[in-house]
Amino acid sequence: MSSAAPSTATNPTTTRGAWMALLAALLGWMFDGAEMGLFSMVGNAAVQDLLEETGKIDQAGRWFGIIIAMFLVGAATGGVVFGWLGDRIGRVRAMSLSIMVYALFTGFCGIAQTVEQLAILRFIASLGMGGEWSLGVALVMEVWPNKSRAFMAGLIGAAANVGYLVVGLVGLVLEVLLKQQIPAWLGNAGFTSDTVTWLTAYKGWRLMMMLGTTPALLTFLIRLFVPESHKWEEEHKTGSTSNWVTADLLGVLLGALGPALIIAVWAYEFVGLAGRIGLTLAGLVIAVVGYTYPVVRYLQRSLIASGSLDKSSAQTTIKLMLLGACLSGVALLGTWGSTQWAARWAGELTGNELQSREWTQIWLAVGAITGTLLAAMMGDWFGRRMSYFMLCILALGSAEFLYAMNASYGTMFLFSSFLAGCFTASFYGWLPLYLPELFATRVRATGQGFSFNFGRIIAAVGTLQTGVLVDKVFDGSLPKAGMLMSLIYVVGMAIIWFAPETRGKPLPE
To answer: Check: CATH 1.20.1250.20 for 15-220+240-495?
Structure first.
């Protein structure tokens, strides 16, 4: 599997430009992973801190699930909006904007005064994070040659999980420094004792969030040194990018009302179970129609502009977007509805002693780095469909093993976390390999942005269900809820056989 830079004989991007594009994208994905891991580690402390003054600390579990769900919905919305922007104005400019959004608003989370403010800020930050994933994948896959795609996909998944690992390591260091050094440093810098207490309380979650502004520096690197995708530039020269119209984004805005409805009915329970299920399905339909609207309108304009009466390619594009969303939804729901709760479970088992949350996150991340690299190679070895099927089996087995075989925190728990991280996160090496292969250049960023990030809406629904299962069905038993949610991988084993096999084929033009 070669990772050699593209030949300028077939690709006008210089070797230096290709490496700069890869470096920028890898750093972006690394910060994405850090952004995702951040709330898994300090979110519970943040919610408890913000709820304590209101006397509603008993709602911490519900709000933890709500904020995760809003984060996932925001990423889904951002994947479509910034994907649209990447197809309209170019991958590089849109990626710079997306990174700036998630960096700044993650930092703003550190000054939130209420749990509602924290939820809104996380939603806005996730808009940029969802966009960065799709734009970075499109840029790298278009700049590097076909023979490097599996290797690049593995790096993409690994980079995000390196960020997840970094957050765990930073958390360990911060916990030690919070006892003496950081309060002393802040005091010497002129902060009042009340401000120091405010910043360092509850495991210093505010400081961790403020550190999330670091990726903003990456935008300067991107704008100065990263070249635009030559494939997009060629498409732009044909004039086809002008068929993307800003007014179509109103469809995305309306589509976002669907997930908002889903979160509301499960968070506030103002209707019965049958009503919640019905409104959830309605919300998913609204989201699908709204989020695909810009692509539908673009394809309609393209057909008119070309004078073509063949609508089959447009219909195929929409079908592939929905199929990709289902494949991503299985992977994301398996992660967010099951293994992402492992760090919280470790804290429950130890009473938040022994830095158990941080070490669990570290071993999940180490496993995930291993799994994403392995999954990308499996895609080349066994084909895209068979590898996905195998990954579903391994993910299901590892998640069940984690929750069924551990009753206490220790070496076996961390080993189980490594295995669960390895196989449940492996899809994040497979998806960046497969999704770009489904779409032509003109709709690639939007198509794969929808496919991957719409899966987050499905995951958001599942995350809300995990909280409901823990609190109301299994009497506080997180392992039972995690084991039940991991059965989603059985659905993935069936869906994958409806997907086209793309191994050995070039990216569609």
So the answer is: yes
